[in-house]
Amino acid sequence: MIENFENNQYTIVYNGQIYNTAELKETLTEKGFTFSTHSDTEVLLKGFIAYGYDIVSHLNGIFAFAVWDSKKEELFLARDHFGVKPLFYTQVDNHFVFASEIKALFQFPNVEKIVNDQGLGELFGIGPSHTPGTTVFKNIFELKPAHFAIYNQSGFSTKRYWKFISREYTDNFNTTCEKVRFLLQDAISKQLVSDVPLCTFLSGGLDSSIITAYASQYYKEHNLGPLPTYSVDYIDNDKNFVKSDFQPNSDSHYIELMKNRFHTKHHTIVLDTPELADSLMDAMIARDLPGMADVDSSLLLFCKNVKPYATVALTGECADEIFGGYPWFFREDALSSHTFPWSIAIKERQDLLHPDISKKINLKDYIDFRYHESLDEVTILDCDSKETAEKRKISYLTLNWFMQTLLDRSDRMAMYQGFELRVPFCDYRLAEYLWNIPWEIKALNGREKGLLRFIMKDILPEEIVDRKKSPYPKTHNPTYLKRVKEMLNEIMKNPNAPICQLLNRNQIMEILETNGTSFARPWFGQLMTGPQLMAYLCQVNMWLERYEPRIEI
After folding, report:
1. How are the residues of the chain apportioned to helix, strand and coil, as percentages rounded to the nearest 5?
2. pLDDT tens sequence across 322-362
């Protein structure tokens, strides 16, 4: 979009959704601006004209955008508070190049696909997370979340416009509950505004049930009919479900409870295992990297199957990060691991490297550097209890690393299908308020997300309020293990397969022979074990074949 204003021309390119468009438009109208469309793009551009760099402090939404100021010959770029929307850039031959996807940068002449020792540290030490601001490719960067950037004749510079600020907490318990309830309901209602068909993703877990409860109430108040809800399942999962500490029960019973309580129009998307395996390539391409294997491809297929009926979905993503819901907030082995608690298989990762590469790269050193670099950003207050101080640190890591990985997954898999996922729990106002609530209140009654459970006890069915956390559903069908094992075996039949240049062939063969059990801990998070690890290795080979990076170490 181009806007001429006071003898100047402004051009914007934009990806995202501004949730406070109506309020911002009203303020700009009072300042004398007029509008010829109903799009948030026009509001965003005129907001930039009115406020300049400070436009970012007026925005609530998910966004990555760039504005070219013709008179100043200056480019302004900005990214939302938590980096839901991607923005990558590089400089080559005196050109500044930016895009929403890394693959788009490679379309520009002379942008090279080089992976050096830092890139390998990111890929195999940190991955599928990544250090904010970096990519696995040399000289290709991302604009960090909550940052804006300026590019002009003076060069390139970035500035942080928002961060968590540690403050003494003074609200009493009742006030805390009222504020959290208001912020949550306000975030959901703002994100329900849409001019295209909308739904919620409903797993029957606490988080998606909260979104669905408030959304169904909104639909009722606005006479929009029953709220469409969708869940994902897998063929024969009911027969093959295996209970674990991380996945204690299946979803179907709880979904039925929500459907009956809130009279939603519910649909279950059932995926088959061949689809999951066949979509590993698309999931890798969507990320431009090997990712979370079928945890990615299943979401990609889920969005594909919902797309004919809705274009936007609200999800319960990010509640565990904001409210403290993951097992590592409570497990002593994770708390005392002195590393990223969702990725403690450091020795196993090192052993998986090709012996020649393993001699040159120490993954633990790289991980330790990134871990301590991130912790140095956390401000601990004198008034913080020992537990609150400890949990501030692990919360910061979770919010800035693990949550970012899941947000990457959500946006990339959805947008690959032309679908939009919205994450109300990721509203920055809610997150910054929760940041200073003492852990003893946040984990009320010693429960994960105890405060959130208490607030919702009169709104949701009791069984859902008390339900133990269960992650995004994965397939338990043994045919999936068989399929990805066949795929990886086929790759390993070729001794010159690209993966053999980076990883230890003997280790991969042992993983195959033991169905992944030789890799003692999850590769990442709670789900990447056994079949998921083999699928991940398939993605690594797919990535090397398709992107053909040059390895420089």
Report:
1. 45, 15, 35
2. 999 999 999 888 888 889 999 989 999 999 999 999 999 99
Residues 6 or more apart whose CB falls under 8 angstroms from that of 455 comprise: 177, 180, 181, 184
φ, ψ (nearest 5 deg) of residue 513: -65, -30
Closest CA to 188 of 315, 299, 62, 302: 315
**Dist CA 471 CA 450 (whole Å):** 17
Q: How far apart are CA 463 and CA 490, in angstroms?
A: 46
Angstrom distance (rounded) from CA 336 to CA 272: 39
Closest CA to 315 of 422, 219, 414, 214: 422
* pLDDT tens for each residue of 82-104: 999 999 999 999 999 999 999 99
Angle between helices 531-547 and 294-306 (to 10 degrees): 80
Kindly provide the b/e burial profile for residues 158-174, where b requires at least 16 CB atoms within 10 angstroms of the residue's own CB: beebeebebeebeeeee
Tokens coding 401: 């690393």
Report the alpha-carbon distance of residue 229 to residue 508 in Å, rounded: 41
Beta carbons of 42 and 65 less than 8 angstroms apart: no
Amino acid at 163: K
Structure tokens at 422: 């919205």
Please enumerate in sequence order all residues whose Cβ is within 8 A of that of 422, keeping only pairs 6 or more positions apart, or say none.
17, 62, 191, 312, 313, 314, 315
pLDDT score for 245: 47
DSSP, residue by residue, 397-423: HIIIIIHHHHHHHHHHHHHHTT-EEE-
pLDDT in tens, 520-551: 788 898 778 888 999 999 999 999 999 999 99
Query: Does the predicted model carry a pTM greater than 0.90?
Result: yes
CA distance 51 to 311: 32
Q: Which residues of the chain have pLDDT under 50?
A: 244-246
